[in-house]
Structure formats: structure tokens, C-alpha cells
Amino acid sequence: MFSFEFLFSLLCTPYQDICVIIPEWRLESDDSCEVSFKDACVYESKQTVNGKVPSENGVWERRTTLPAPMFSRNDFSVWGFLKKCIGMELSKITMPIVFNEPLSFLQRITEYMEHTYLIHKACTLSDSIERMQLVAAFAISAVASQWDRTGKPFNPLLGETFELTRDEEGYRMISEQVSHHPPISAFYSESLNQDFSFHGSIYPKLKFWGKSVEAEPKGTMTLELSKHREAYTWTNPMCCVHNVILGKLWIEQYGTVEIVNHSTGDKCVLNFKPCGMFGKELHRVEGHIQDKSKKKHQVIYGKWTECVYSIEPKVYEANKKAEKKSGGDSKKHKQEQSTGGDDADEMPDVQETVTMIPGSTLLWRVAPRPPNSTQMYNFTNFAMTLNELEPGMIGVIAPTDCRLRPDIRAMENGDIDTASREKERLEEKQRAARRERAKDEEEWSTRWFQQGKNPYTGASDWIYKGGYFDRRYPHLPDIY
Questions:
Q1: What pTM value is reported for the model?
Q2: Annotated domain spans of the chain
Q3: How far is it, in rounded angstroms, from Cα 119 to Cα 140?
Q4: pLDDT tens per residue across span 74-98
């Protein structure tokens, strides 16, 4: 009955245009800010008991759990709050902390990078169609982490940042909250050997319609592969969260996603299928890859919650015809139609897992979640690590980094009362700073990104200015 909070987790889902480039391959601080740094230092010193320890050879192992399990939401009246929000844009509403998970939206954006190996592999391939297959798998995999994530990430404060460097996976990433109204988050990631860059800006628009919440994707994703001098762009599918008041929460992604290779003219058209009346298509993705002459080369099929395959079009069509000829599940569907309930928002039974068609190639399979995931906000293994402070981080990462937010840190440690007080304090501090700027007729200035146009689509975008990893942080705002 508390499923509404999940719809807010969509704020951290990919709803923007993304461009990916694949390279060649084959502060003055006040007392409150000081407290947040002290808390972070204390937390760092406790890492031997909070889910991770250094291994015997001195190599730091990332944690596999959070310091404390999530709290119960059973005593909170969802409807009492939500009835005030019908028809409103949710990104403009201050949410009670009961809806949150202990991550910032900037950290949730970083979950795009969980399956970076797909990009690295694409960089090694000489055939553009084969590269497109892996780029398509990467785009699909980017939405997989939101399944069953029932908490809303914290809204980033204006000027908030998050960096992530993964040497073993060969990339680093920086994101910044560049606008508060409307809320816009910009990010830029690159491979450590200059093989690719992946960037975008996200402006998710959510609306509550009584029984469901609709998320409209805004923004463009861009992937650039340097060696191949290729740039791919796409936007993300629509998302709908059902049963936000009563019943079992469930989510579906639907709509057409077009991935365009601006260098070759190749295109991948993906159809995230709506659930339908009986749930047969729940979570399913189907599409094809075509060249600039519109000749189909490969079919992509699978589920965004499970796995994705590719296969030759002729083989795929022959298999579909054989299924249709044999009658498929028509009898089962007739039974479902005759016994179906009256509640259109009832979650359909999840159909059988994806059946691999002989001759298919597996492109991607979702990693299993840790055994304690349900007690840890349904986090993936990757999400578990995003807010941890590794040895030596403090003094290196920017003082605006999400890891230093006292409200998120308190929530992660299981101290909900402190988390709620800190959240209110930070939001009021942000409002006071905005009033001061208005009084002085001063415009907010972003640090690492500037507004411009996407070089491939011409759409409005936020472009990385560079310089973050030089580790010079002059005149950064005191936001904590």
C-alpha cells in the first residue's frame, strides 16, 4: 500500500537524451558544513564494521551491504499526502523523507554505468552493426536497476556534484545539478584510455493521476566512440507506475526508442512494449537494427528486467510464424480473459522468462541482486557502493559531493530523525541562498557544465566544460 514512493525513484531513471562517443579500440565552511565533514570522517573510520573491510593484501574491497537496513513505512499515510498532489508536477513538491532511499539523484544517474563493459566491448569491434547491438544492449540495461526500487532518491541541491572513478572498469564520471527550477542534472563520463565518452542532461517530468504516476523522459543521451569516430544518440522510454495508493506496486516502460549512429546512418528501433490487458508483453523489448538504406540486419528481443538477445531477421520471423501456427498461448489468454478481474491496475502475472530462439546471441543479462537487497531498499550490488567513502576520499572529492550530505549519510546509517532534520535544514539553506541571489540580482553560475546545443541533434543540452579532475575547487558554494 506504500507503492507511491517508487514512482519517485523514476526521478533517477534515465529520462534524457544521451550521447555516447566510442573511441578507437580493437570552501569556506560554516559549522553545519563542518559537521557534515566530521560525520563523513567518522563514517569512514567505521567501515570495518559497516559492510566492508580491507582485504589482507591491503586492497580495499567495496561493501556489499549498507550500515543499517531500511526502516518500515507501514505507519505512514500515503493517501493523506498524495491527495494534495493530484495533477501536480511532482518534481516541484517537497517530499517527506519516508519516500526516500539513501542516494542522491546524481548517484542514481551513475547507475547508467553499471554495464560499461558493453561499451568497452563495442569499442573493440570492427563491424558497425555489431557495435550497434552492444550500444542497444547498453541503452536497455540502463533502465534495469529501477525495477522494484521503491524509494525516491534525494533531490540534488543546486551545485551538488557526484564523481565516480572505477579504475578496474576503466572509466570515471562527474555529474552536477545545474538547475533547480526546473530540476536538471548533467553528467559526463569517459573511459580512462580515451576510448569513449558518454554524456547527457536529465529533466524528468512526473505527474500523479490518482491510481498511477506517469514519467515523461526529457533529455538526450549521447555516446561517442573515439576510435570509430562515431556518435550515438537516443532518448528513453515512457514509464508508468501503477497502484500508487493501494495494491501491489508495479512498473512498466513503454514507447519507441531510436538509437541513431550519426556517422554511419545505422539505426536501432526498440519497442518497449506496454503490458497489455493480460500481461503477456510485460517488460518485453523488441526491435531491429537497420542500415542507412533501411535494410534490416538484426532483431533485438528480450526483457529489460532480464536479458537481451540478437538474431537474424529471417530466423526470428520464421520462429514467430511457427509460434502463431501452433496456436501459442491463445487458450491460456482466453482463460485469462474470462476470469480477469475488474481492476485495470492489477499487476498481471509475470509471464515465463525469455525463451531463447536457436541461433540467438546473448548480448546482456542482468546481474542477480544481493541476498539482502530487499532489506536494503532493493539496491543492486552496484548501488550498494555508491555512497561509501573509500580511504583517502575526503580532501580529494569536491566538498559539494553527495557522499558528504549529512541527511543522506544519516538515513544510510538508520537515523531517520536526524536525516529528516538535516533534509529540512539543507532545503531551507538552499531557499535562503536563492533569496540572497535574487536580492543581489545575481544569477547562479554552474561550475562544470554550460548550457548549449547537442552537436549531433541540435537539441538543448548541457555540455561538460572540463577541469573537474584537475582537483582545483575554487569558490565552490557551501551547500551543506
A1: 0.83
A2: 4-252+374-470
A3: 13
A4: 666 566 666 666 666 655 566 678 8
